[in-house]
């Protein structure tokens, strides 16, 4: 599916009149040589690379290749991996010029302006959320304050990408494979599960767009990209039940007929809201159980949701004829084999009632 983070940054650059192109090399099936050839031909001033921990080695190889072929292009890295590894990256990968940490919609615009003006260290030092080298020393400008109101940034620049390349489809029971779009209406999660990076990347104070803004993006995806399925990428779509209820009401009132997937917390979900979600098009939802052992949940994971709550929500899903998708994790710190067996037994007991992950 398309990278929403890249598309948000592209939209912000476009809004400020800064030329930008999105290059989804993975779906274009480009290799490093193809990308290098593009850089030689197009001569970009800045080349940004999204880095996850899984793709970091490929990203570093790409940075090296571009810098060797076109030294004057600024290589800028960002993405989840960079939030806590900026200094280490600059220390070990000399071909990388700048690392951006945290939300980058504002940072990338300020960075483009600074590089356009010559990229002097004095100009880079006043940009929060970046790390770079100045006379051989690594400079970190400190954390960028998270965007307080997500309604202030433009919608992702899907028009700057070729959505047809993704062939993003989701199977809906009884409907087959349908064209889909991913969108994110909130950032952050108020909970503190020990295995989750969301509090580090997005924060525990959840920021969400208005229901009106959410519907604007849903309708845009339906109109411009023929989406019949929406994949909500929010960590916890029901973090604010009243907001979600309003979104559902608007989908129902406008008779959008959209099918959608989301992830929820079962300890923040009531039957009345669940039924409205189904009426609005929910056909599949995920939620974390993680472990069936109380000690692991309470002392290790810090999860307060109960197995009873999970079972209730699974029953609701079966009543409604939609798919409940509980998530499980094994090998928690200090987890014993006997405790893991409890989880296995619980998951096996859901056969025919839920789709376990």
Automatic annotation (TrEMBL):
Q: Where does the B12-binding domain start and stop, copy by copy?
A: 1-122
Q: A GO molecular function for this record?
A: metal ion binding
- The Radical SAM core domain is annotated at 175-357
Give a yes or no for keyword tRNA processing in this entry: no
Q: Give the InterPro entries listed for this entry.
A: BchE-like (IPR051198), Cobalamin-bd (IPR006158), Cobalamin-bd_sf (IPR036724), Elp3/MiaA/NifB-like_rSAM (IPR006638), Methylthiotransferase_CS (IPR020612), Methyltransferase_Class_B (IPR034466), rSAM (IPR007197), rSAM_horseshoe (IPR023404)
Ion transport as a keyword? no
Q: Sorted alphabetically, which keywords does the UniProt record give?
A: 4Fe-4S, Iron, Iron-sulfur, Metal-binding, Methyltransferase, S-adenosyl-L-methionine, Transferase
SMART domains documented for this protein: Elp3
Gene3D superfamilies recorded: Cobalamin-binding domain (3.40.50.280), tm_1862 like domain (3.80.30.20)
Q: Which cofactor does it need?
A: [4Fe-4S] cluster
Identify this protein by name. Answer: Uncharacterized protein
Give the species this sequence originates from.
hydrothermal vent metagenome
Q: What is the lineage of its organism?
A: unclassified sequences, metagenomes, ecological metagenomes
């Amino acid at each position: 599916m398309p990278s929403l983070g890249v598309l948000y940054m592209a939209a912000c650059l476009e809004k400020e009149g800064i030329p930008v192109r999105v290059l989804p090399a993975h779906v274009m099936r480009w290799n490093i040589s193809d990308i290098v050839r593009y850089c030689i031909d197009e001569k970009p001033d800045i080349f940004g690379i999204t880095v996850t921990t899984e793709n970091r080695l490929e990203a570093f190889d790409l940075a090296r290749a571009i810098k060797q072929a076109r030294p004057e292009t600024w290589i800028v890295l960002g993405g989840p991996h960079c939030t806590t590894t900026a200094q280490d990256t600059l220390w070990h990968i000399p071909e990388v010029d700048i690392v951006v940490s945290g939300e980058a919609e504002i940072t990338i615009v300020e960075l483009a302006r600074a590089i356009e003006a010559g990229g002097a260290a004095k100009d880079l030092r006043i940009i929060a959320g970046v790390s770079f080298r100045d006379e051989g020393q690594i400079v970190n400008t400190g954390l960028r304050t998270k965007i307080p109101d997500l309604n202030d940034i433009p919608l992702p620049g899907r028009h700057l990408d070729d959505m047809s390349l993704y062939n993003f489809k989701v199977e809906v029971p009884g409907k087959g494979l349908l064209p889909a779009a991913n969108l994110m209406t909130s950032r952050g999660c108020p909970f503190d599960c020990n295995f989750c990076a969301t509090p580090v990347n997005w924060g525990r104070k959840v920021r969400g767009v208005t229901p009106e803004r959410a519907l604007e993006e849903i309708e845009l995806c339906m109109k411009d990209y023929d989406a019949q399925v929406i994949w909500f990428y929010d960590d916890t779509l029901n973090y604010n039940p009243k907001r979600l209820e309003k979104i559902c009401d608007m989908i129902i009132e406008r008779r959008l007929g959209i099918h959608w997937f989301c992830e929820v917390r079962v300890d923040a979900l009531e039957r009345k809201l669940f039924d409205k979600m189904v009426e609005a098009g929910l056909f599949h939802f995920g939620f974390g159980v993680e472990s069936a052992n109380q000690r692991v949940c309470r002392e290790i994971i810090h999860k307060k949701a109960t197995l009873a709550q999970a079972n209730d929500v699974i029953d609701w899903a079966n009543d409604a004829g939609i798919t409940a998708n509980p998530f499980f994790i094994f090998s928690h710190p200090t987890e014993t084999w006997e405790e893991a067996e409890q989880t296995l037994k619980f998951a096996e007991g859901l056969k025919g009632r839920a789709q376990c992950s």
